[in-house]
Amino acid sequence: MEGAGGGGGEVRLCGAAMAVGVGSFHDPVEIQGLAHYLEHMLFMGSHRYPEENAYDAFLSQHGGYSNAMTECEYTVYHFEVPPASFTGALDIFAQFFIDPLMRPEASARELEAIESEFNLSRSSDSTRWTQLMCHTCHASHPYARFAWGNLASLRDAPQAAGLDINAEMRRFYGQHYRAPNMKLVLLGMEDLDTLENILVRTFAGVRGSSSLPPSLPPSPLQGLPPPMDESNALGWLFRIVPFRDLHELHLTWPLPSLLSQYRSKPWEYLGHLLGHEGPGSILAALKARGEATAIVAGVSHEGYDSSTGLALFTLTVTLTEAGVRAWEEIVGVVYAYLGAIRRAGWQRWVYEELAAIARMQYTYQEEVETGELVEHLAVGLLPMYGLERTEFLEALFLLRDWRPEWLEVILVALSDPTRCRVDVASSRFGRAGAWEAGPSAQVPEKAGDGETGVIEGISVETEPRFGVHFTRERLAPPTLQAWKDIFNRAATGDALPGNYPALFLPQPNPFIATDLTDHTFRTPRSCIYLKLATPHAYASARQEVMTELFVRLVKESLNEVTYLASVAELHYGLKATELGLELTFHGLSDKLLRLVELVLRRLLVREGGSEGGKEDPLFPSSCAGLSSSPQAVRFAAQKEALIRVYANGNMKPSRHARNLRLGVLKEKMWQCEELEREARSLTLEAVAAFAPRLLEALQVDGLYQGNCDRADARALQSLLLSLLQLAGTRPVSPAAYPSNRIAVLPPGHNLLLAAESVDAGERNSALEAYWQLGPDTIERRVVVQMLEKLMEEPLYDTLRTKEQLGYSVSCGLRMTNGILGLAVKIQSERYEPEHLHARLEVFLQSFHASMSTLPPSVYARQLVALAQNKLQRDASLNEEAGRYWAEIVDRRFQFDVGPWEARRLLSVSLAQVLALFEESVGVNAEKARHAAVYVTGRACRSRRGGRGGREKEGFARSGKATEGEGGKEAMEGTQTPTQAPAETPLSDGSVVKPEKKLGPLLLSAKVRSLARISERMGGPVAVDAPNGGGHGREGGTEPEFYPNLT
């Protein structure tokens, strides 16, 4: 085993990572998914630490985090923890690789976890496409292995082959988990000599550490022919039925392995040109024709794309519906651009520009998380990468050697259409859920025409693992020859057919920084945040959609320029919020204000103005009513893309549950179906008329932070004022300031929202249980945070690891527009939400009992760990600026909130946490303001007649999750329910299910606010208190809201 260490300086968190040179390519054919299964099992206890949750519990109690990942040719494990707990965590971690238990009873449960993880991934279109690619490779090649694993491959297949899965797992572990096959990285506060002594003492028991280590198996790709060739994939067309509403074109070319070319990275040059978004690029041409909205090209670092056996160069285009019909011509445009590259020859200035940017990114990179850093370094030490020890820290970042001969190797492969695999995934061919519900009603559409019908002579196939429906056929020789002819004509400068656009290489990038001085984070970067509050952004569902479309049109009109800025490490964001518009700018400070002015001018100044009488590039009057104008084409593409966003918005059950909860809580929250309807009816003229109104009155808040001084801030202020004056914008009056209130949930009642999954083939169900805890104060916040801290690990261990309720189990604090809450989320393939809710209630009862008897020393340890986390310094300028901006937006202005919270935490007693739980969260909490959301998968296993059981996810392996909710929302929480008896169907297809314990339930699946309840239920709704008393709410009355807090 080879180790590396670093320490002796200021370290926020210590950490370690172990990379093992074995992955899914090493799986036995009879037990596919074994490497992934073994990765799970190493977390389940060791002889020295036999408790299954020993590792997770230690990290949770001491403010740590861990993760693990199985790749194609390696598996990597890492953790991070405060310095005082480093050696304790390291000792538990080391036992993974010395003496793990791998108990049969634990392995049986973990098989269910693998099955649940597999079923969660079934809704990922990128995963489905990767698996289809594997399925269509040569069956004997490791690329064709099923890396995820499931019950069929890890239980049924071994049984059929007469194999003992537990014995085979131990054999696999013994064969590959040996010191010569491992690379370990430690990062600690200690000096290097001390770290080396810790390493030797802790890992001495790893097998194969003697002077004569056993030999290791050869690479599974050694000496093998490519997994795809002309007989199975190259020169073939695959049409794919996706899970979501999407349209994508994938072009894939196999190349020799490029791992040895880490110094030159020739794929970066060609990926940069093919994926460029500026004038003359493939994307610019396709956007002008309304056929595409995004492009990406290159060789990724993932195992299928970068292996010791080969590399896969992939170009992916996000298509419009028009692009689906024109896919064949779009491939021709790609070959025309490849011809333009050939004609231009190898431009060294392009490579040197990329090398300069890479050098800036590496030299001035901001600090990364400890876990991410040690994982990156451990993987970089693996022999498969062949990195020189003197440069392995920078080897994966920098471009050092100009090697045009390798550019030639790649271009020769890319320019041959017979060496290209073409995949077209489109919901025009159907949707996966509809196929599972009844495939006879869904048939692939013949690409190139707009009609739906059976493709003559082509049968629909089903990939056996993920159930991907697809067709395949050899591309016609005339089609392949036409693409080759286009390449040759472009390469020689001959005229292309009239329908082909002008394509040319980019010009030098004007945004590359030259002034790189800084004094704060040792990096010449700055961040700028701007909030433009307007009362019109989210005043109605229609205005929200018009605001979103306006934002998309602004970003699209700037894209050719802002893309260049992003390449040069200058980034911006523009998004609509319920308060108005929010802009963010960050990157190298030298030219940041230049980007700010460019974006603000396009956003704020409409026709004429400072443009010297030029027409508005977004809504020129000369193009009014012309559907063929560039603006109309651009609008149609962006409208179509936004409709797909809304159509896919509730596809994942967990996201669906969250949206339903927020629809009840937030005054301005419309469900995806409502927004989609509005989007379909909008016209360019309507958005053009709305834009001046959106920006007629604004209140601007801003933050400028980083490598800047007072003069820079004043320059930004002057720029803003001048542009606002040019735009004729006036201040927002206090009375007109946009509202973002949150509804007050009634105390003492369980409110239940129930709906079925959007997709008919969805196997997963979701529960989100939420407790509203009142307006945010620092005193209340730290008590809720401590409750989360105490709850998160036992919740995960009980419901995920032991009961296997669902693959995804988490709890978290919710901050919804200044209102505190606590939530538990469970997603399950095996159980419907009612059962998940009932088991959660049982857990809450046992958790209350255990918390009541918690030893003071254990409580103190967790309290101190949480306080220490809050005292950690910001890792980067972006982290610090983001924290400051949240304080400004939420109007708290506690810029040193971490130390404040840490001080308040130290005075929080266990009795206070218990009191909060018993009053507002526990099963018998009479004042609880509780809502639960059920989203039931229409194809979940219990509905399919499958047996009940357990499921699982990864608290310790997925760690500190956060998610946004209007302003922000952090993860942590839990609460209770019971089972639900009879159901009341509603006209919209959702159901109302009464809650057993606390009286009649109130809410249906598509209710946007409490005021609408009576409309859905046909009359006034009475809310009965648990003691038989109650208070009424008339059907049309306004619900009670908390006052605006942000």
Automatic annotation (TrEMBL):
Residue ranges constituting the Peptidase M16 N-terminal domain according to the UniProt record: 14-126
Region (Disordered): 940-995, 1019-1046
Location of the Peptidase M16 middle/third domain: 517-675
A Pfam family of this chain: Peptidase_M16
Residue span(s) of domain Peptidase M16 C-terminal: 168-354
Keyword presence, tRNA processing: no
Chain intervals with Basic and acidic residues compositional bias: 948-971
GO molecular function: metal ion binding; metalloendopeptidase activity
Keywords: Hydrolase, Metal-binding, Metalloprotease, Protease, Zinc
Gene Ontology process terms (BP): proteolysis
InterPro entries, A to Z: Metalloenz_LuxS/M16, Pept_M16_N, Pept_M16_Zn_BS, Peptidase_M16, Peptidase_M16_C, Peptidase_M16_M, PqqF-like_C_4
Listed Gene3D superfamilies: Metalloenzyme, LuxS/M16 peptidase-like
Domain Coenzyme PQQ synthesis protein F-like C-terminal lobe: 786-885
Highest taxon listed in the record's lineage: Eukaryota
Presence of the UniProt keyword Transmembrane in the record: no
Co-factor requirement: Zn(2+)
One Gene Ontology CC term in the entry: cytoplasm
Entry's family note: Belongs to the peptidase M16 family.
PANTHER family the record matches: INSULIN-DEGRADING ENZYME-RELATED, NARDILYSIN
The protein, known as: N-arginine dibasic convertase
The organism of origin for this protein: Nannochloropsis gaditana
